[in-house]
Amino acid sequence: MTSTSGKESGLRSVRHTDGYPKASASEEERGIVKPLPAGRFVDHRDGEAGPEDPTGDLAYNAEMRWEAMAGKGYLTPVGSFFVRNHAPTPRIDPASWTLRVEGPGVERSLELGYDELSGISPQVSIVRALECAGNGRAFFEEVHGRQVEGTPWRLGAVGVAEWTGVPLREVLERAGLKGSACGVMLESLDAVRMRRPLPVEKALEDDTLLAFGMNGGMLTPDHGFPLRAVVSGWAAVASVKWLGRIVVSETPLFSPWNTDKYVLTGGEFGAERRIIEERGVKSALELSWPVRLPAGRHVLYGRSWSGQGAISRVEYSVDGDPWRVARLFGENVPGAWSRWSFRWDAEPGRHEIRVRATDGAGNAQPDTVGWNDLGYLYDGVVGHPVEVL
Length: 389
Ligand SMILES: Nc1nc2c(c(=O)[nH]1)N[C@H]1C(S)=C(S)[C@@H](COP(=O)(O)O)O[C@H]1N2
Ligand SMILES: [Mo]
Known about the structure:
Blueprint: E1 3-4, H1 11-14, H2 25-30, E2 41-43, E3 60-64, E4 83-85, E5 98-102, E6 110-113, H3 114-119, E7 124-131, H4 138-144, E8 158-167, H5 168-174, E9 183-188, E10 195-199, H6 200-203, E11 208-214, E12 217-218, E13 228-231, E14 243-249, H7 256-259, E15 263-264, E16 274-275, E17 281-285, E18 291-293, E19 296-306, E20 311-318, E21 324-325, E22 327-332, E23 337-346, E24 349-359, E25 383-388
Parallel strand pairs: 5-14, 18-25
Antiparallel strand pairs: 1-7, 2-3, 3-4, 5-6, 7-8, 8-11, 9-10, 9-14, 11-12, 11-13, 15-16, 17-19, 19-23, 20-21, 20-24, 22-23, 24-25
Bound molecules: the ligand Nc1nc2c(c(=O)[nH]1)N[C@H]1C(S)=C(S)[C@@H](COP(=O)(O)O)O[C@H]1N2 and molybdenum atom (MO).
Molybdenum atom is lined by residues 84, 132-134, 236-237.
């Protein structure tokens, strides 16, 4: 579903509607600009950053409630898309905003304004999931009986959108990318100046985008307006929002976002700090957690996703019964997700429904995931609690 959408994509016609209203002081304290209705989001904005935390790990975070996807189409509506912010959503005026591209890995520095950047061709639109590396963190406690610090996301720190922008490669080439280029630091304009390096090989892939559009409209403030990276298949920490500068190096790059946080450490990793890149395979039912259902026949819906390809198979098991195959339907874009359903004759009592998926590369969800100290990449099978009345 990668398509080259020309200038008629509709983005150009809306992007001069003089930006967004300025945030009031109270909006800035809230950290997230868009409304977070309780029926659609779990509000996780309750954390405090320690002064020793260089990632400014505040919890300006909102988790999508999976029941909000019930009956929805393939894409996650912007109004339901999860938000993960290390600092409050900044309000950026596109008229004075620029993107700088510089560093020893390019022949010349560039400074691009919003019109120049969004006028680069080819413009592409790709449908991809973004998922936080911490999605599923809550399950570490259930499985290991030990709480992990950080936002206790269940499964709602994921969403699929159509992202419109220009390949990062186009911009790097305009700056005269050198053969010796090695690291690409994506720097943001938020209060923590988030900086996450990307290896040049990943930066040059067709579906690594500088995106200014989301689901056919302009990016909204919370999702990175005026410009964000969309790094397909990787944990969404790589998809830096509110970009202001890109620095290309000739040596590997490090920042707190690939050394202090967003690394696998502890448990089987011991003292190693392995940088998180690809995501695994996960599944979720489009039901509240826990859910109450009336007795009788139901058709249950859900979605499965993988960072490494399309979904090839989804199975479910109720109360430990043998695994059965769910019916996949609709689009199944690699790096996005696949929808599925199955029929269930619900009998009164408490039940647990498990779902597991396999992707085209043969990656399957494990029964459980071993411990890591920062609680990342929990892609094990989880039991969804259901009470039938
Ligand atoms: N500038 C900036 N970019 C950022 C972040 C951030 O806090 N600041 N959070 C990252 C993380 S950890 C995630 S999971 C995604 C979340 O994207 P979303 O808020 O659009 O869903 O943005 C990434 N990009
Ligand atoms: Mo994240």
